[in-house]
Amino acid sequence: MNLGLENKVALVLASSKGLGLACASGLYKEGANVVICSRSEENLKIAKEKIEKIDSKNSNNKVFPIVADLRHEYQLNNLVEKTLNEFGKIDILVHNAGGPPSGTIENITKEDWKNSIDLNLLSIVRITDLIIPIMRKQKSGRIIAITSVSVKQPLNNLVLSNTTRLGIVGFAKTLANEYGDHNILVNVVCPGPTLTDRMKELIRKTVKETGKSYEEVEKTWIDPIPLGRLGKPEELANLVVFLASEKASYITGTVIQVDGGFVKSAL
Ligand code: NAD
Predict the structure, then answer these.
(1) pTM for the model
(2) What is the pLDDT of residue 192?
(3) Which atom of ligand 1 is least distant from the CA of 201?
(4) Domain 9-192+233-258 sits in which CATH superfamily?
């Protein structure tokens, strides 16, 4: 299937590792130019080298790294400005961000709340503010927000994720409604438990708190998954790449999970 992604420009946020890196890699493979970002120049350098090893459909597409902390508005401005200076357009925004700390209502601090609202919720509002005028001028655009299955089924010990990510769903649906007539398509994807550094960190934290073994804690994540295993980052990326592609031209305003069946509700 030709996805029509050659020479498109994709800005993939929080993409030095895990799901963001998998999305950037998938888009690059299909021939898109990808802008990758994270807070660490060193991690970005490693990520760029990894992506450039992939056999792309396009012999000329580039990986362009930009250091940015998504919690800060001026760094988002810089990210968009540098992307435009380099490529002159932005066809695709994949909004991803670092995960908030785990914890219950009782043990999350005021500072954790502020950080997570800035990182997980306000960063998409702020960057979309900058990108919508560009996409409107281009008369096309794709925005894909990576959230979590927590928007469909709140997860234990993850109150920040359960709360801030639902705001993204409301925001994305509103964008899809308001900018459909400008051919800007907006969708939300919801990863289930997927084996990345973030997942390993969540498991290790529970090991420390409970004294259980790594395997026992990992099993508690796997048990509710009908497919009987954790997801792979590229399995989430496959959906993101498709939603970014010309083949997804009639899909907007949806909230789709990639979770091996983890979410138990019917819708
Ligand atoms: P990860 O920790 O492996 O990667 C996170 C990426 O975000 C890294 O590239 C990191 O450098 C970057 N990042 C973190 N804070 C940043 C900041 N302030 N500014 C810029 N970049 C920043 O995480 P992951 O597993 O790939 O998860 C990605 C997102 O998906 C997270 O929000 C996570 O909570 C969510 N999620 C993950 C899973 C899972 O099982 N892995 C499930 C549901 C939701």
Answers:
(1) 0.97
(2) 97
(3) 2
(4) NAD(P)-binding Rossmann-like Domain (3.40.50.720)
